[in-house]
Amino acid sequence: MKKAGILNRHLAGALAGLGHGDGVLVCDVGMPIPDGPRVVDLAFRAGVPAFAEVLDGLLGELVVEVATAAEEVRRANPEAAQLLEGCFPALELVPHERLKELSAQARLIVRTGEARPYANVLLRCGVFF
User: Fold this and answer.
1) Active-site residue among 20, 75, 78, 98?
2) Average pLDDT in the 12-22 region?
3) CA gap 79, 62 in Å, rounded
4) 20 catalytically annotated
5) 3-state DSSP call for residue 7?
6) How many beta carbons lie within 10 A of that of residue 97, not counting itself?
7) Do 12 and 110 touch, CB atoms closer than 8 A?
8) b or e along 17-33 (b: 16 or more beta carbons within 10 Å of the residue's beta carbon)?
9) Minimal CA–CA distance to 83: which of 73, 72, 95?
10) pTM for the full model?
């Protein structure tokens, strides 16, 4: 049994299968989920688990070379924008409709319980060396 890191077996297994260039969408409860990518749904109740908490756990396990979010986050959810810009100084911002299109190519989608708008980020996996 794991004693640290991500303990959810479905999420831990999905992360172990990712490679360089694979996309991981971390999203709020309102983000449309496209057909195709593997989905690990962590949502329990509105707000639980929070986007920030899930993102923090994922960043402890993943190497990220690019992060993309909706430009609308700055206006509609300044707290999420500040979090994302703090985690990813070179954060790419695109229109929300474009982020939804890009999410269809993700290998994994992690749905949080976040109930505030535009708390979504598409991560592209990098390598540790």
Assistant:
1) 20
2) 98
3) 23
4) yes
5) coil
6) 10
7) no
8) ebeeebbbbbbbbebee
9) 73
10) 0.96
